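User: Fold this; tokens only.

Assistant: Input:
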Amino acid sequence: MKTMYATLFVILFFSIIFIPLLNILPNKSSKTAPSTDISENQDDRQQDVFLMKKSDTGEVVEITADEYVIGVVACEMPITYNDEALKAQAVAAYTYAVRKRIGRVKNRSEYDITDDSTKDQGYINPQKRKEKWGGDSEKNEAKLQAIISSVKGKTVTNNDEPILAAYHAISSGKTESAKNVWGGDYPYLVGVESAGDLLCPDYLSEVSFEKGQVEAVAKTLGAKLGDDVSKYISNIKTSNTGTVLSCQFGDKTVTGSEIRTGFSLRSANFSVSVKSDRLVFVVKGYGHGVGMSQYGANYMAMQGSGFEEILQWYYKDCKVSDGKLKNPGN
């Protein structure tokens, strides 16, 4: 009996002493339990990834937003441009890709974007950047990383949605409306003054073609030419910026964009003359002329404008937003 009382006493003693201690010891499992913050961070990481189709292999790869934007800026804008212009380019490039990603989610497409500049934006990988920059590669890489980090996550928006952030190298002195070039009506892609482009050394270009070359282009466009070289291109209709909207090419009406592509002109803002039986084009600017002029952006930056002012100048009635979008596309 004494032994039984002794055993009960020991059990009671340990219960009184150790059970309260168990209640105040830290719960190790709570350290690994997922929190709202962790979930949000996972969402952020997903937002910062794009699915890119490589034009050389057709492979779809996952690429971080930072690497993608660095590769786009390195490909699309001279590294010598002012930092604020490079920031504007980075935000435009990111905005363009985010808009494409939202489209991919809505349409259940295989990828967000390509690295083909004729379809989307140009992109060059780290190895190609080293080849392009040579001995300055480390310095330039660090420069772009700092620039892109300073505008990370920023997008140009209209009605809280990422815009079609189109851009081009050099305007004619005024940018062109998207409606004139592509037919689509984007209220923020309208013509604005870009006087800095007039100072660009590459603002004007001139190319000429002999009769055989013109005939070859006419054949690709399905046009038939007469014998009079002076009538090869006629009835030119232009926008108020000088972009050729349409013209008569032999017996066929074509767009200025078709002439630009056929003759590999720098833009569709051109005039035509005949010299010694050769067709001569004098071309203003470089690119489609819609949205932000890169040279114009650099000129504004050199005059003291920050990247937000540059973006809001070229993309009318838009704002530079920071933070999560309503439809991030993750």
